[in-house]
Amino acid sequence: MFTKSINTCIINIVLGSFIFFSGMQLSAQNNVIIDADTGNEVDDFYALARVFLEPSVNITALNAAHWQTSHWAIENTMENSHRLNQQLLGEMGLSIKTNRGAMARMYDWGERAQHSAAAYEIIKQAQESEKVQILVLGALTNVASAVYIAPSIAEKLEVYWLGTTVDFERGILKRNDFNPLMDPYALDYLLDSKVSMKIMPVSIAVKMEIDFDELNNKIGDHFLGAFLMDRWITHLDGSRRSRVLWDLALITAFIKPEMASTKQLITSKDSGNREITFYDGIDADAIYEDFCKTLLAFEKE
């Protein structure tokens, strides 16, 4: 009887320790929503592959974003992004919840929100959590629509976004690059909100220009690397010999903050007139090496 009690006690201690340390491991992960216009450019696949392979990040949803305002848009850009999101997950043997986002930018008047599964996923997670981190690689439509529908969630959102051009010496913010132009109202709405924003300007991310031959020689023999290089070649402008992997800069700066530097700026009165954190520098070489090393270590189960 005494021996049985000791054995039971030991089992309970071991089980309790397992649960405790498992809980510690889960709590150490960053829970994030990814919002990506994957069909628009080549760089999304590379950035998504990197964050999918990051053990410190737990992706709670992968939302598809539109790029419908582009002159090179196809008939349904959001569906294109949604399909490619699932294609990449399938190639990597991963299972992550995927949501369809807005079909186009926010409406011009009246009830301006784009109601979508992506927007309501953001609302749901914000209502169930104290903080929700969202990495946005394209238009801000899904996030802005969520806040428009449920304004009370604004203070719970921490948005990391690629977009704008910043002249740090003169303190000038320009919003005439691709992502802001896909939904200017969404950006204005979030700048005027209480959503915490951390922005990677394209004028900083441009340092992530990669040579095709160099990258292909490094990762082309890996099954996932070959898949990513095929995306480069089969894209609309597949003959390019170099590209800027814009989104990889933002994704890696989030995962490894030591590879980037930031600066706080007070935006102008017509851009929210509030403090926003902007990335003002990245270690492009370190980001590139980190990407290649992480990818080459990946083996699909």
Give the % helix: 40-55%
Largest β sheet strand count, sense and barrel closure: 8 strands, mixed
Number of β-strand runs: 12
Task: Give the N-terminus to C-terminus distance in angstroms.
Answer: 45 Å
CATH architecture classification = Alpha-Beta Complex
CATH topology (fold) name: Inosine-uridine Nucleoside N-ribohydrolase, Chain A
Explain the overall architecture.
With 301 residues, the protein is an alpha/beta fold. Mean pLDDT is 92; it is low at 1-27. Strands 3-2-1-4-5-8-12-11 form an eight-stranded mixed β-sheet, sandwiched between helices. The protein has a single domain, classed as Inosine-uridine Nucleoside N-ribohydrolase, Chain A. β2 (57-64), α3 and β3 (98-99) form a beta-alpha-beta unit. Helices cover 45% and strands 20% of the residues. 42% of the residues are buried.
